[in-house]
Amino acid sequence: MIMAWVAMASAAITLMSGEGAWGLAAGTTATMASASLVLAHAALTTPPPGCTTRDRVALPLPPVPVSWPDACRRLGVFGIVVVLDLAASLWLAWTVQRALFRAGISEANTTALALFLCPLLWLAAASWQMICTRLAAMAMAPLAALILGSIVWLTV
Questions:
Q1: pTM
Q2: Cα angle at 116 between 31 and 124, to 5 degrees?
Q3: End-to-end CA separation in angstroms for the chain
Q4: What is the DSSP string of 97-112?
Q5: CB atoms within 10 A of CB 92
């Protein structure tokens, strides 16, 4: 799985450096088309699962009382993963885009790179947060991205 991500990232870097934004767009389109063909082939050749009948009818579960500390924790996780991670990944991708643009790379290429980088940063932060057990530990990844983006912004 990790090797697949490394292969996709290296292919994107190679296409971006060789052909710019056009190379990245063409490579991404070809990759999505080939992945669609592989998924369609798998869907057509995989046999359907065997149906089993249940011996008894499942009854609805009784309502569980609301645990307010648990609800607040879940809301905090949502706020960190969705809102804070999105803001941090957008900020870091935008500052990298601006730094590369000011370094002389064309605007189309830097914009394509930023659009590619933003979801990767969001995914990296969310992946890190899956192993954290406390909200404070979960907030470290987006805060690090915000600090790094701010340093890039201030130095360029």
A1: 0.63
A2: 105
A3: 36
A4: HHHHHHTT--HHHHHH
A5: 26
